[in-house]
Amino acid sequence: MHASKLNPHQKPPEHLRIIYKRYQKLNLADLGKDPDLVDISHGLGTRHINIVRCSRSIDATASQEPLSWFEEKKISQPSSSPTLVYEHVALPGLQIIPSLLSQEVQWQLLTRLLHRDLADERHKTNIHTHYNVPYELCNLERTDHPGDLIKSQDTGFVSSFFNCSPKSTALIQPINPKVHKPITISEFLCRKLRWITLGGQYDWTKKAYPQTVPPAFPKDVLGLIHHHFPDMVPEAAIVNVYSPGDTLCLHRDVSEESKRGLVSVSLGCDGIFVIGLDEDEGNAHRSIALRLHSGDAVYMSGPSRYAWHGIPQIVPGTCPNWLSTWPMGQDESGSETVGGIEARRYGDWRGWMAQKRINLNVRQMRDQ
Fold this sequence. Notes:
About 20% of the residues lie in helices and about 25% in strands. By secondary structure, the protein is α+β, with helices and mostly antiparallel strands.
């Protein structure tokens, strides 16, 4: 099957819509008892052991990220256990990889995505549709007076919207003030920001990638993803920013001019992930509902490359403790870093990540 034969506006099959709606409505207690929900990190039940199987393992030394720029913050000792890769017998090409990324790499990846890449005006967000985003705010830092911002003179300064205090009175102005009201930095980062595009800037209206040369894909993120998934070349990504109550409707990614696999990496709170194919001639339902945790990865390739998938629920209160303090750091004992420059810059944002889920979704736009 090729993407050119698939209709991007087609509605998902009814059997998948029923599954999606069911998990959208389940509360936390019922999620924990649901017999159909697959949570590999907590062990496979008898009902799943014959349909979800470990297909291979990645040696611990091979799975440790070799790139030095992801080794700046030592949060925990790297695991000596191999990383296991699981597959679903009825969804060929779907790979589920629990705990692919170490805590250290997750922290550094999150920092690059939400500090550096969000602050890069080449990478558009959902906010750009209706607002003029003031990127000059990323290069300011607060003074001893709440709400005051000055241009940083620090040579080690990192551009970031999080340099602004959540109490800042600086406003992001709408393109059309008759339709939309100005929003504060806190509203932007806590409520309004839903996605960031890296590399190829997907046109959500035309459901296509522009033919013009895209912004360069972040080199370190490219290296990280390509290291673990060498069959595809990262050229474009969507960074989804979720809060509890947010969802992602069932859809298929059919705009790429390449059949190379799709990579999805989870950071933060758990997410329920529903994926499935259209019914086959035997009317069999080929689908699965997964509970994904921070550091897990999913690779959709082969027949599952164009599978329907969506996120019906973000599970509140499930961000790992060591990550929930971001953008505040931790010392070697796991205690929050409370002094110095980092505390001055990010202290007021402590806990921002506690109720967030970040999904990094990477794809190859065109065959090379």
